[in-house]
Amino acid sequence: MNDRKPELCWLTDPTVFAVNRLDAHSDHVCYRTEEEAENGRSSLRQSLDGEWQFAYSPSPSARPADFWQEGADLSVFGTIRVPGHIELQGYGELQYTNTIYPWDGHAALNPPQIDWDHAPVGSYVTEFTLDEGLRGQNVCVSFQGVEQAMYLWCNGQFVGYAEDSFTPSDFDLTPCLRDGVNRLCVEVHKRCSASWIEDQDFFRFSGIFRSVFLYAKPKVHLADLWLQAGLEPDNITGTLTPRLKLEGETTGAAVHLRLTDSEGYALYDGPVNGDTLELQGVQPWSHETPTLYHAVLTLTDAEGNLQEVVPYDIGFRRFEMIDGIMCLNGERIVFNGVNRHEWNAEKGRAIGPEDMYAAMEMFLRNNINAVRTCHYPNQSLWYDLCDRNGIYMIDEANLESHGSWQRLDRIDPDWNVPGSKPEWKDCVVDRARNMFERDKNHAAVLIWSCGNESYAGEDILAMSNFFHEKDPGRLVHYEGVFHNREFDAISDMESRMYEKPWNIRAYLESNPAKPFILCEYMHDMGNSLGGMESYIRLAEEFPQYQGGFIWDYMDQALWHTDALGRRVLGYGGDFGERPTDYNFSGNGIVYADGTPKPAMQEVRYWYADPQTRAAWDARNAAAAKAADEALAARWAARPARPLTVVEGDGNLGVQGDGFEVLFSYIEGGPVSLRIRGNEWLWRAPRPAVWRASTDNDRGCGFPQRSAVWMAADALTRTGKPEQVEITEQKVTVRYRFKLLGVPQAEAVLTYTVTDRGAMEVEATYHGAPEAPELPCFGVKFQTAAPVAVTRWTGLSGETYPDRWKVAAFGSFEEVPHHEPHLVPQDGGMHMNTRRAVLQQRDSRGRTTAALELQSCGTPFAFSALPNTAQELEAAQHPDELPVTGRTSVTVLGAVRGVGGIDSWWSDVEEPYRLDGTADYTVKFRILLR
Prior knowledge:
Blueprint: E1 18-19, H1 34-39, E2 45-47, E3 50-57, E4 78-82, E5 96-97, E6 121-129, E7 138-143, E8 146-147, E9 149-154, E10 157-162, E11 169-172, E12 181-189, E13 202-203, E14 207-208, E15 212-217, E16 220-231, E17 237-248, E18 254-260, E19 266-271, E20 277-280, E21 293-300, E22 306-314, E23 319-322, E24 325-328, E25 331-332, E26 335-339, H2 353-365, E27 370-372, H3 380-389, E28 392-396, H4 422-439, E29 445-449, H5 458-470, E30 475-477, E31 494-497, H6 501-508, E32 516-523, H7 533-541, E33 545-551, E34 558-561, E35 567-570, H8 600-606, H9 610-636, E36 644-647, E37 651-656, E38 659-664, E39 669-675, E40 678-679, E41 686-688, H10 695-700, H11 702-705, H12 707-715, E42 717-718, E43 722-726, E44 730-738, E45 746-754, E46 758-766, E47 776-782, E48 789-795, E49 809-814, E50 830-833, E51 835-841, E52 847-855, E53 860-865, H13 869-874, E54 888-895, E55 920-927
Parallel strand pairs: 26-27, 26-33, 27-28, 28-29, 29-30, 31-32, 32-33
Antiparallel strand pairs: 1-10, 2-15, 3-4, 3-6, 5-13, 6-12, 7-11, 7-15, 8-14, 9-10, 9-12, 16-17, 17-20, 18-19, 18-21, 21-22, 23-24, 24-25, 34-35, 36-37, 37-38, 38-39, 39-40, 41-47, 42-44, 43-44, 44-45, 45-46, 46-55, 47-54, 48-49, 48-51, 50-53, 51-52, 52-55, 53-54
Helix pairs in contact: 2-3, 4-5
């Protein structure tokens, strides 16, 4: 659409999404000379990033409507950083919401309406003088990302209007420019019809959040290129069809192509005339060998004068469907993938190159070979990095409207957009076109995605048809057809999210026409990612199961100053906004600061190839066997020394060489464990029948179903102990605990102090009919002083019954700590432990006391944390946890898994649950000397 008069009504008209916007084009960079191209600095570009003048308005009626006019008074304007979000620079309100639209409950709206009284506007102004390299030529401006709608003026003249927040919007400024200083004015609206189809699960920002730059077009200009690279079935013959679009004085202009390998050998050095080139001896591009070839296009005018030099790296590969299986270069492909939002805890989605380089390094370290750009096209640098590093991409269009059809308790597409509404079709196809045109040259892009969770209808079918017609060399993805099979033709593969492994198996056993992928799986909210094995095994059994994409890469949380003046990471609701979905944005395999979560090691293991995993398992088994033999030998070599028993009115004392244990008759266990003068116990140990709820537990209702165990864990009591045996060689004391709220259920703790300088602790749980599932069972105690360091022999890192395979077996140490999940929850568990040592240290780091726990034949699980399960349960943020000066130690014989299928309905898989009617036991020894 071309128009010279801006209209505010465009904001609520889905048929108006681009006014005077230039056609979308490839993301190539034009240089004036070969030297510029080699140095990566173009004199044909001029950055406008930096400080702009800015005014914030809460609604269109309050905006400075004439700020774009020449001579407008801008004295009340402040400043803002570009690129950057308005809400992260002191203006407006931050808000996180998942499915529900931000205005839900505040305004009764239907698409494409907006709440005109609550539709913030940002008015931007910058001034520039053209750099020397741009003068005397046509000059355009490119906005790489503006959320959500923008009007543009230059020197008092209206230039254009655009929507689609995540692809570039380019405009021709040539008719408006003048010598000297030029003024550019941008009016950014947070609400428009596009708000209904940009309902992604993320923080709702606005503003110019990606770079802005000017670029000049010489008298003949390479406006668009598609270096359409292919690979013949022999996998050594490449084909290259250059499709170029020239602008300006094209008569007599010529383009020369030089294509070289990494050694500088030229595969082709000649003119571009529209023919398909056949190239011998190419190396196919793949994750294992991400070979790129360097193309340099040289554009000359009719007189032979150099006008532009355009470099681009391309890869030769063949992606296709063969007998219902997706194949790359003739071989079945499996996506070991992750979804990735663009995120930085300081800057939101206005990320920089350093964020992308860090993410790529994390991908490569952890065997991640694929990424889905959820749920919008990312910055172009990310595609370059994926090309170079062999990361397969699902490139996803900027479309999500789940709030228009996913109700809290049902699916109701009555007013779903875009659906099959003709007035929405052009705008969503435009989004497909914008993404395709920009990204079409990237070897890493194997699949185009029509968006996310927008149901299905004629409009998304039109997007799919666009991709298929334009690019038969790639496949098309869309998960939403799962909810509307009438439009199954949209997607080339069966794609689902958070499907259970057994349902996937049923699909694969039905002789399906389409291969299966999980566009989202393993919802890594908080302490999660248990049960990943169930999915990976499907890929080993069924060729048509071709992997999935973990949700997601990074927690979305923002650094801010809380009400107490502390700098903390905030999640939804911490910024005063409502509605919100609170910490549901914390689903990453890395925290918001980029630090990997403990579950990352599980990703690394299961995304390795089967041979690597088998070798790893064999090494672990050998190491565990050696550790067991060494521990048994050490125990067998311990000398026996007689015990001294002191029977008092309220306590039974057992003394030995350098130690004393005091068993209380009224406190339900040993109240003192003193070794070489150091007291280790705060209070008597208790049965452990509760671990703090994880996000996955809360999502599936486990805390409510098993809440009785939390009370039993906190309030259980016992009667007078049973003195089973008292001699100089052995003292055995037994305590029986009734578990509050669970009739007939009982826990028994038996302590045996032996003349070999150890106290054996055996805990037994006797189940009861109809008792609910247990979170865990074992023994818990708190130390009298904080533990400085925990050392153990067992599995590395944090492990759980459904998440431990990757851990290395050996000796490790850590400082007792809580993992910084957005909401505190259980963590720090170490499975298959043979030996654990709790160390106290002085200010110089020297060990002053140590308490050693050993397995008695059967390994145990343990954790050593700064807080109790009840303290964790009560906190909503890590900084709310009390500092007690104690360490909570838990030794378990059984513990519930953490799960990961999803964080709302699905329970932990059956093998990793604890039956409340069954019996459980754990036995370990504490060395007393």
